[in-house]
Amino acid sequence: MWNTVLFDLDGTLTDSAPGITRCVQYALEKEFGIIRKPEELIEFVGPPLREQFMIYTGCDEAAGQRAVERYRERYRSVGIFENSLYEGIPELLGQLKDEGFTIALSSSKPVEFCRQVLEAFGIAQYFDVICGSDMAGRHTGKAEIAEDVVRRLGMDGRRNEVVLVGDRKYDIQGARQCGIGSIGVSYGYGSREELEDVWPDCIVDSVTELRNVLIGQVRAEREAIRSPKSPAGKALRRAADGNPAFMIWRLLYPVLLHYGLTNVIAISAYMLILFYLLATGGRTADVANVYAAQAVLITGIADAAVIPAAWFFFRADELRRKANAFAERILNRNVLGVTEALRIIGLVIGFSCILNILISYIPIQDETYQGLAEQMFTKTPFIIQIIVIGILAPFAEELIFRALIFRRMRDYAGFVFAAVSSGLFFGIYHGNITQGIFAFIMGMLFAAVYEHYGTLWASIIAHISNNLFATIENYLFSKIDVPDVPYMIFLGIAFAVSVLCFVRILTREDRVNVV
């Protein structure tokens, strides 16, 4: 992977041909009496000037150096400004920096001129190192300059991470001699044929293509490294997750949070009732009865206390997932509008009705639970039941068992194991066999809904619809005697609606996550 880029200047970053060719025209006329048009001198763009003067005129090294001095007479005052950046270069440099690249300039132009050009165009700040030749005409070879950059950047032992970008064959040959990668740009002064003859690692035809190659290969490498199946990706996840003891603690403490807050508030309520009876002359023996009559309200207060605490940990988890950027741990959001919410409600109500019927055939008589349920539904005002059982409890439980336990288990072991294990947590926490079986199965359904829609609000809607339906159903059954036949018809309709909603969810809605 290339993470260090050495840019040539003329023909790669800037269109400097007008200034260079006019200065060469001036030098040829003044030093050798040769008259040429600027467009006939394009071959001077890129190679070291002294050597190119010697090749072009057949002169010796001393005459070549005098020609360079003539060239500079005009270049210092005029030619350096007959120049322009290629479109998209500032944006490219900024994007490379944002991606963490080290950027250097590697040019045969004197370093003094290089710096002036970069500063004039306002891009000097992007370069960690600026290397060029000296005014005496030494150190002009592409390989020599690239070697100097590699040394100054401390990349001598990591040459496979360095690439030189240039427009002429001299750039590609210099990169090969230096043992680094090379990219030829055909939008400069060298033709594609010239570049193909020296076999760079790749050739690009535009600044956009150059950006795509450089940034694309870095992002692809990062994705490969961060893949959950790669050794490096597994190591990153182990480091982020902590040791096994910490992972177990992260799964257990949400339950302890719910249990602890619930019991603290329950004990506090019990003590307040006791003090109230003592202060008003009531019988202390009535504490248990008064507490039982207010049990649902007290549970609601406990749930109201759990919600902000659990929400805090949930948001912290989400921020942590985004910071780690493990793609498989971040849920994609699916569409969740009114139509989708109605499908969730239809699915859950029908499913819970059938599940309750099936559980009723299990030869288990949990008299303690039945007694508590009867007391809860008969002694608690209906509006309190709606608020506590229908809204607050589902909200708190979804935060604990789906937002925290399911999502954390999903991070560690994937969806299926997380859905089953969090459902098991949910079932056991209900404390009795009848509710436990129902909660275990419904908990897995809530997890699947959460996964499908990619948002906790989906499972909250599912849980609330289940609890509200059960609360209303129990209230109505306590008031009226529903004949068996109409009830069986209702169950059939509910089951059909549930199946229809299930099919619609799977076939008509996008599947953006595992389920």
List low-pLDDT spans.
Answer: none
Number of DSSP strands?
Answer: 8
Order of helices and strands: EEHHHEHEHEHEHEHEHHHHHHHHHHHH
Q: Overall pLDDT, averaged?
A: 90
Category from helices, strands and their pairing: alpha/beta
Output the strand order for the largest sheet: 5-4-1-6-7-8
Structural notes for this entry:
This protein has a 6-stranded parallel β-sheet, sandwiched between helices. A two-stranded antiparallel ribbon has the order 2-3. The longest helix is centred in the middle third of the chain and has 37 residues. By secondary structure, it is α/β, with parallel strands linked by helices. It contains 20 helices and 8 strands. The mean pLDDT is 90. Strand 4, helix 5 and strand 5 form a beta-alpha-beta unit. The protein is elongated.
Q: How is this fold's topology laid out?
A:
Blueprint: E1 4-7, E2 14-15, H1 17-32, H2 49-57, H3 61-77, E3 84-85, H4 89-98, E4 102-110, H5 111-120, E5 129-133, H6 142-153, E6 162-166, H7 169-178, E7 181-185, H8 192-197, E8 202-204, H9 207-226, H10 231-241, H11 244-280, H12 287-293, H13 295-324, H14 338-360, H15 367-379, H16 382-413, H17 415-429, H18 433-453, H19 456-479, H20 484-508
